[in-house]
């Protein structure tokens, strides 16, 4: 028997060990206790910002809200209603934008949000690489 035979035996044992392992079949950590709690981070609360409204922008003059598709003119009417709907804290708008959205449209959305009364606008931009691979948030 030569070294190639033993190499094959070791590799077969490794493959069976890996593919039969519980981590490969269902990756993650099993939680056995019923009193599981997430790790507390003291800094997370101070940097987290809640948003009042979320919009998705897929192209020029194509905005999706929780009530449906709108153009920028309709959005200018809808945004103040969202500021009024929010709590007494700062009203923030989250803009989820496609990579095809121009910087000019993003600036126009920012101006619309500021005029409507939002104190801040957060951008969640999708890169061109993420679109090609099918990865999404």
Describe this structure in words.
The protein contains six helices and five strands, in the order αααβββαβαβα. With 137 residues, the protein is α/β, with parallel strands linked by helices. The chain has a domain of 81 residues: ATPase, nucleotide binding domain (Nucleotidyltransferase, domain 5, 2-Layer Sandwich).
Features:
137 residues; alpha/beta; Nucleotidyltransferase, domain 5; 5-stranded mixed beta sheet; 6 helices; 19% strand; elongated; disordered C terminus
CATH architecture of the domain at 48-128: 2-Layer Sandwich
Distance between the termini: 53 Å
Structural class: alpha/beta
Query: Strand fraction band?
Result: 15-25%
CATH topology of the domain at 48-128: Nucleotidyltransferase, domain 5
Could you state the CATH homologous superfamily of the domain at 48-128? ATPase, nucleotide binding domain
Q: Describe the largest sheet.
A: 5 strands, mixed
Tell me the radius of gyration. Answer: 25 Å
């Amino acid at each position: 028997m030569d070294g190639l035979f033993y190499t094959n035996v070791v590799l077969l044992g490794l493959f069976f060990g890996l593919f039969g392992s519980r981590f490969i079949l269902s990756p993650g950590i099993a939680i056995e206790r019923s009193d599981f709690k997430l790790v507390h981070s003291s800094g997370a609360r101070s940097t987290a910002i809640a948003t009042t409204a979320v919009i998705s922008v897929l192209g020029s003059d194509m905005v999706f809200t929780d009530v449906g598709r709108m153009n920028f003119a309709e959005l200018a009417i809808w945004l103040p209603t969202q500021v009024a709907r929010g709590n007494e804290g700062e009203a923030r708008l989250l803009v989820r934008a496609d990579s095809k959205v121009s910087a000019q449209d993003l600036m126009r959305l920012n101006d619309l949000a500021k005029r409507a009364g939002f104190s801040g606008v957060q951008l969640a931009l999708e890169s061109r690489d993420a679109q090609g691979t099918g990865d999404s948030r």
